[in-house]
Amino acid sequence: MATTADIRNGLCINYNDDIWVVSKFQHVKPGKGGAFVRTKIKNITTGRVIDVTFQAGHRIDDVRVERRKYQFLYKDDSGFHFMNTETYEQVSIKEEMLERPEFLKEGESVEILFHAENEIPLTAEMPQHIVLQITYTEPGVKGDTATNATKPATVETGATIRVPLFINEGDKVKILTETGEYLERVK
After folding, report:
1. Cβ pair 20, 41 in contact under 8 A
2. What is the dihedral angle through the alpha carbons of 7, 9, 13, 17, rounded to the nearest 10 degrees?
3. Which has the closest alpha carbon to 110: 131, 94, 122, 124?
4. pTM for the complete prediction?
5. Tag placement on the chain: N or C end, fewer CB within 10 Å?
6. The domain 2-62: what is its CATH number?
7. What class does CATH assign to 65-125?
8. Tens-digit pLDDT profile for residues 125-170
9. d(CA 59, CA 114)
10. Residue 145: what pLDDT?
């Protein structure tokens, strides 16, 4: 059992008979009354995000999880298949358990969270950003760069993102996986 003093980003807790992960938290000590912790937690099974407030000193049932590096192999009807790079053990994960599967390419490394007691995969976390090659985009027209204009582009995984007008086919771009937002062109 943990208390509110142990709350941190990434902490997995048992809340309402389900596993949740803390994505944001803030300790608050108002002028009047007792301190409390305001949290934003995400359900691992459904992906639902809720705001929960815990009074200071409240007991929290934390869940022990292990993060392991896996490499993406392929996707088929049964899900996404990953391989542990140290033990060569393979695991299959359903698409719902991945946050942004459209940016996943073969050979990419991800972190898979396992429930420590049951050895059940809970979720797969993509890297913060990923480098992908543009496979199709309309050519930019010279002189159209006076504003922050963007155009749609398809990357090698098949996902569509918005890129600046100067990006052409064959360019490699860095993408923020959480939002699918273009960050920069990579040489």
Report:
1. yes
2. 120
3. 124
4. 0.73
5. C
6. 2.30.30.30
7. mainly beta
8. 888 999 999 999 988 766 655 667 889 999 999 999 999 888 899 9
9. 23
10. 58
